[in-house]
Design the sequence.
């Protein structure tokens, strides 16, 4: 009897651990620029399937943390684990192939290319397409491109950018560029997207649309970590929020807990 219980419990423990293991986990990340500790022993966890927020005053280290999570900047120390494996030693394109992608605070769309070309380029980078495939397997390459075009058209339709597919990306409004950036991120069928201020400089109507899309994509299985100053966006979307201040962890909790946390208020009001 005692033995059976022991077996059962022995069985349960690892399963429970698997369930609670976050999709993304950063431990003790550090990054200095000269004498400035932009990110100073920061740890965060993002549960699979969540929409998690990352907030903090300007200069708190939020964007630098994103850079470290995707290895756009190399951490001085610390670890990043994604989907059960360490990623902080991998180059960014391999991190994206594993299903972790990001957008930028200032959207990085290619203005002189069409919206559709921007989409296809994102997919091409992902597959690591070999140029000799074009010579030796032309049929395969054409088929893949056709499939990618169809997938891109579907995504553009879902974000209301179909009519702009052949326009220069430079002709899009600020809000539409943000949408295009997220749409490009979706081309690689990611498990998780890091969004750096998706609502910044976007008009209120489009902000609502972006929030609705994020909710839909989340329901389809994509996990999000979102940096955002717009507290309505954070409050309405996020399950959990992490707060950074002066390069360090300050707090984490539900949006309501964070809103009422005296430490957080103090950091924002600079008292
Ligand atoms: N490449 C860099 N070189 C020098 N300093 C940087 C660099 N990137 C960020 N910083 C500094 O690190 C701090 C955190 O910046 P950042 O991560 O952009 O903050 P946030 O996104 O929270 O506003 C700031 O003081 C910023 O000036
Ligand atoms: Mg920033």
Sequence:
């Amino acid at each position: 009897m005692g033995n059976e219980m022991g077996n059962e419990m022995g069985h349960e423990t690892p399963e429970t651990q698997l369930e609670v293991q976050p999709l993304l986990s950063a431990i003790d990340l550090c990054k200095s620029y000269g004498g400035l500790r932009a990110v100073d022993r920061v740890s965060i966890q993002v549960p699979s399937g969540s929409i998690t927020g990352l907030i903090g005053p300007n200069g708190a280290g939020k964007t630098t943390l994103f850079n470290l999570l995707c290895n756009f900047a190399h951490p001085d120390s610390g670890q990043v684990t994604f989907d059960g494996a360490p990623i902080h030693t991998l180059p960014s394109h391999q991190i994206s192939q594993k299903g972790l992608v990001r957008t930028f605070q200032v959207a990085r769309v290619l203005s002189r290319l069409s919206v559709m070309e921007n989409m296809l380029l994102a997919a091409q980078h992902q597959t690591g397409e070999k140029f000799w495939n074009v010579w030796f397997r032309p049929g395969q390459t054409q088929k893949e491109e056709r499939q990618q075009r169809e997938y891109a058209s579907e995504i553009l339709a879902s974000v209301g950018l179909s009519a702009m597919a052949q326009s220069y990306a430079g002709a899009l409004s600020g809000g539409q560029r943000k949408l295009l950036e997220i749409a490009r991120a979706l081309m690689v069928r990611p498990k998780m997207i890091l969004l750096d201020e998706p609502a910044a400089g976007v008009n209120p109507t489009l902000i609502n649309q972006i929030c609705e899309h994020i909710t839909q994509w989340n329901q389809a299985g994509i996990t999000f970590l979102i940096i955002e100053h717009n507290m309505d966006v954070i409050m309405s979307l996020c399950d959990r929020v992490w707060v950074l201040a002066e390069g360090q962890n300050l707090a984490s909790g539900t949006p309501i807990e964070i809103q009422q946390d005296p430490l957080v208020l103090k950091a924002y009001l600079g008292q």
